[in-house]
């Protein structure tokens, strides 16, 4: 039985320490700003611009391989570019936000405690191993999901405000994005954080943990590349299948992470 008070106490402690770490907070602002504001604004403002298409990696290839009937046939060339990029091309990029946030916050979960010399006191508290792992996971999952949702709201307002005159009205979000934000983002954030927390428990420094966490981002990057090259179109069916698969994987990975966590082994390494 999980004791929520003990889990919440650890989470509050970690959030206070994270708020004092300016090096960790800065990327949490920069990454969503680029993906939710700067990139979509440039795409909508410049519209059908050859220079823009060639300057964004994979954008021209994505437009060249766009399947038929994905974009309404009545759209002009400029409308097609904006719709395809905002609705389809940018979708996988939003999965980078929770993974990046998790890699920044989760990588210091246990190894950060070691560096601050607070790990011994934490491990000797009455909290169980499962509760401790859950607390460390939620410390990263909740901010990453909230930041992704805030970024999505900003993105929605921005693309509709800038794109409505060109598109003839509001055109975003779609059902694919609803599934992505409500289901895929939390599930992916939970999976990434579980793996990163497990790495953190075995790392000797925060830098080592962050270096290992980069590997977690690679599958998301592969999804972005597949979307950009037209090999994989991120639509409703793919989003639903990915959500179902991630739910099963999340349960298995958390059970394995919590099951393999042994505070005695960490204490002997202090």
Automatic annotation (TrEMBL):
Keywords: Membrane, Transmembrane, Transmembrane helix. The chain crosses the membrane at residues 25-46, 81-111, 132-155, 175-201, 213-234, 240-261. GO terms for cellular component: plasma membrane. The keyword Electron transport does not apply. Pfam families: ABC2_membrane_2. This is ABC transporter permease. It comes from Pengzhenrongella frigida. One of its GO terms (molecular function) is ABC-type transporter activity. Coiled coil: none annotated.
């Amino acid at each position: 039985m999980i004791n929520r008070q003990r889990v919440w106490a650890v989470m509050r402690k970690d959030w206070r320490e994270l708020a004092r770490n300016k090096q960790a907070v800065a990327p949490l602002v920069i990454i969503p700003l680029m993906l939710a504001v700067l990139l979509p604004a440039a795409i909508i403002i410049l519209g059908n611009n050859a220079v823009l298409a060639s300057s964004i990696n994979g954008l021209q290839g994505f437009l060249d391989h766009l399947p038929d009937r994905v974009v309404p046939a009545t759209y002009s060339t400029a409308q097609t570019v904006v719709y395809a990029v905002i609705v389809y091309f940018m979708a996988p990029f939003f999965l980078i936000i929770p993974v990046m946030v998790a890699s920044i916050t989760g990588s210091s979960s246990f190894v950060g405690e070691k560096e601050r010399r607070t790990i011994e006191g934490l491990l000797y508290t009455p909290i169980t191993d499962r509760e401790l792992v859950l607390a460390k996971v939620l410390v990263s999952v909740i901010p990453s999901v909230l930041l992704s949702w805030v970024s999505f709201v900003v993105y929605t307002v921005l693309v509709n405000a800038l794109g409505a005159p060109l598109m003839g009205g509001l055109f975003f979000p779609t059902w694919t994005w609803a599934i992505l934000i409500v289901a895929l983002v939390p599930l992916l954030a939970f999976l990434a954080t579980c793996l990163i927390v497990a790495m953190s428990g075995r790392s000797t420094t925060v830098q080592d943990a962050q270096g290992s966490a980069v590997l977690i981002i690679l599958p998301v990057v592969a999804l972005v590349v597949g979307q950009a090259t037209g090999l994989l179109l991120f639509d409703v069916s793919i989003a639903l299948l990915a959500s179902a698969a991630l739910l099963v994987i999340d349960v298995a990975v958390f059970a394995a992470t919590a099951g393999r966590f042994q505070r005695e082994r960490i204490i002997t390494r202090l």
